[in-house]
Amino acid sequence: MKNFAVLAVSVAAMTFPGFANAQAKPEDVIKYRQSVFKVMAWNFGAMAAMAKGETPYNKDAFARHAANVEFVSRLAIEGFSAGTDKGDTKAKPEVWSKMDDFKAKMGKMNDEAAKLSQLAKSGGFDEIKKQFGTTGASCKACHDDYKNK
């Protein structure tokens, strides 16, 4: 069940090439975007629980969650096509008016997620926790500037 959400997003992305593009209905693109972020949040939550000591650290599970975040994070940008600024969304208008900055922050988050995924496979827990914090901060940078609470 853990990887089912990632699998579902992956299958949708492969089954409907160009799904989250300008030709799709804006409300469908918004749903796609929200689904990607829900998968990311679920995986981040599992890793956060381990990093905080709320659940026992499991290296294999942490690495799996980190790999999921790395993969799914790269799908998110497709959910911000033209016309998806209105509707059931918490995205601020600045996403579209400052798209270059937004894309740069998304790219930084993708890079940090990739570092976390790699480190989770072979690093020590203290190193992994530090990179988890850095990856989370890169996510927060977009939330601070581009997401309504």
Protein model, in words:
- With 149 residues, the protein is mostly helical.
- The chain has a single domain, classed as Four Helix Bundle (Hemerythrin (Met), subunit A), CATH 1.20.120.
- Helix content is 69%, strand content 0%.
- The chain is built from six helices and no strands.
- The chain has helices at residues 4-15, 26-51, 59-73, 94-97, 99-122, 125-146.
- Helix 2 (26-51) runs antiparallel to helix 3 (59-73), helix 3 runs antiparallel to helix 5 and helix 5 packs antiparallel against helix 6 (125-146).
- The longest helix is centred in the first third of the chain and has 26 residues, at 26-51.
- The protein is elongated and about 45 Å long.
- The two termini are 29 Å apart.
- Residues 14-20 have low confidence and may be disordered.
Helix/strand-derived category reads mainly alpha
Helicity level, as a percent range? Answer: 55-70%
Beta-strand level of the residues, as a percent range? under 5%
Number of helices: 6
What's the quick description here?
This protein is an all-alpha fold and 149 residues long.
What keyword list fits this structure?
149 residues; mainly alpha; Four Helix Bundle (Hemerythrin (Met), subunit A); 6 helices
